[in-house]
Amino acid sequence: MGIVIKQTSRNIITISIALLIGAVNTLYFYPEFLKDKYYGLVVFLLATSNLLQPLMSLGAQHTIIKFYSSFKDKKSKDNFLSSIIFIPLIIIIPVTFLVIQVHDIVGDFLSMQNPIIESYVWVIFLVAFATSYFEVFYAWSRVQLKSVFGNALKEIYPRISVFILLILVSINLIDKENFVWWLTGLYYLRLLIMIIYSFSLYVPKFSFSVPKNFKEIISYSIYILLAGSAASLLIDIDKYMIPQKEAISQTAYYAVAVFIATVVEIPGRAMFQILNPMVAKAINNNDFKDLDSLYKKSSTNLLIICGFFFLLINLNIASFYDLMNNQYYSEAILVVLIISCAKLVQMSFGCGPAILATSSFYKITLPFSISMAISVYILNDYLIDIYGINGAAFSTLIVLLVFTFLKVVYINYKLNIHPYNFNTIKIIMLISIIYFTLNHLTFNFSPILDITLKSLLISIVYISLIYYFKLSETINKTINTFIK
After folding, report:
1. pLDDT tens column, 401-446
2. What is the pLDDT of residues 254-274, one digit of tens each?
3. How far apart are CA 121 and CA 133, in angstroms?
4. Alpha-carbon 248 to chain mean position
5. DSSP label at 359?
6. N or C: where does the chain have the smaller number of CB atoms within 10 Å of the terminal CB?
7. What pLDDT, in 10s, does the model give residues 348-370?
8. Using the 8-state DSSP alphabet, how is residue 325 labeled?
């Protein structure tokens, strides 16, 4: 786990910096300079482009991670990488022609509830293209076990871009109407930087020959495309459906709450960048002992670390919202709790998603993803009408809870391994006890001082108890090393 811990720690720092910048954007700059209407527009456009991204990439980034370590010589690796670059074009070219033909129809459909959307339909497809190829070349660097720079581009770059553009809006160098177009251009600059970096790590000898297992590669890409498209619905369908049922400003309130809640998954996002290629390598080498170790350790460590972030966020949430200038955003406090619970459930699964996606039974990801997408759509359609944005959050929690359990059962059935043990129960109990004990504790100082004091208290209590009860050998060793 040495390289995992090393790059995970760097990636956590990267993502934390990104979220701090994002917090300034989300909690102050967006509401202050773009206002609710245009902020909701940006959220809608980016969320909808994320729904298209798996389709545009044709699952190529996942295909690189699954198959790269199965090729043992440079020639076969070169043939593989040469061919994988062109796979997304199979979808991108016809989609581009289709968009040109039906642009007005799509614009009319998307803007029925909010007419402002009609002028920005092309942004959805342009951003989807840029992010698709970015993910392909990011996967290129990850299989070289170099995830830190790409992770910085993935996490920090977009938020820095937004930060700069919002400052330019505030001083009237660009207007709100053109903000989205400037942001789209910066996504393409990021793609160019990622391509240059990837080629600096490994430049294949390009050829028109294809790998011997090309048929298997294409089959896998199509399955992952379908599964990824369905899975993307779970992430962004709520932000798409809310403007169809509520005022677009509600999307902004929901987006802020979800942004705050996603802090819980920082360690997972950091760890998976390096862990997923290692899972694929273990599976390709039939090293199931190492796979079992990765599965259990990732589950335990992520539950502990993400639980710490869960407590920091939810025990300080009232103070977080007090820092904002707009009182209406605090209506989504319950959304933060619900979504962060959902993220905690998701992180407890450890590297399970990577096992499903890179194993011989990867085809099961498609029915799982479709079932989850259908479930969250049905629940959203019902619960948003009743509970508004809280209903969208409940839908996400229910679907993740049920399907995480089903996936754990399925992997155990196939490989006779599972991520949980008795320490899992102890960790959940510890998180729950601390949350309910400190939930009503307030210091009645300024919001920043309240957050600082409560975070310090949470850190001392939580880390001490985790260390005392020896719930993770890896974390205890890390703490001992830090103390020494």
Report:
1. 999 999 999 999 999 999 999 999 999 999 999 999 999 888 878 8
2. 888 888 888 898 888 778 877
3. 20
4. 23
5. S
6. C
7. 999 999 999 888 898 898 899 88
8. S
Distances (CA, A) of 247 to 240, 244, 286, 380: 12, 8, 52, 16
- Res. 389: pLDDT tops 60: yes
Q: Residue 476 contacts by C-beta under 8 Å, 6 or more apart in sequence?
A: 467, 470
Q: Which residues of 127-165 are buried (b: 16+ CB within 10 A; e: fewer)?
A: bbbbbbbbbbbbbbbbbeebbbbbbbbbbbbbbbbbeeb
Per-residue model confidence as pLDDT tens digits over 56-89: 887 788 888 888 888 888 888 888 888 888 888 8
The full 3-state SS of 414-470, as one line of letters, equals HHCCCCCCHHHHHHHHHHHHHHHHHCCCCCCCCHHHHHHHHHHHHHHHHHHHHHHCC
In terms of Cα–Cα distance, which of 259, 96, 123 is closest to 183? 123
Say if residues 281 and 290 touch (Cβ distance below 8 Å).
no
The C-alpha atoms of residue 439 and residue 480 are separated, in whole angstroms, by 30
- The pLDDT of 195-210, averaged and rounded, is 84
DSSP secondary-structure letter at 469? T
Whether 301 has a pLDDT exceeding 90, the answer reads yes
* b/e 265-295 (16+ beta carbons within 10 angstroms → b): bbbbbbbbbbbbbbbbbbbbeeeeeebbebb
Give 242-254 pLDDT, tens digit per residue.
877 777 678 778 8
pTM (predicted TM-score): 0.78
Helix, strand, coil proportions of the chain in percent (round to 5)?
Answer: 85, 0, 15
Q: What amino acid occupies position 3? A: I
Residue listed under structure tokens 């954007």: 25
Report d(CA 54, CA 135) in Å as an integer. 10
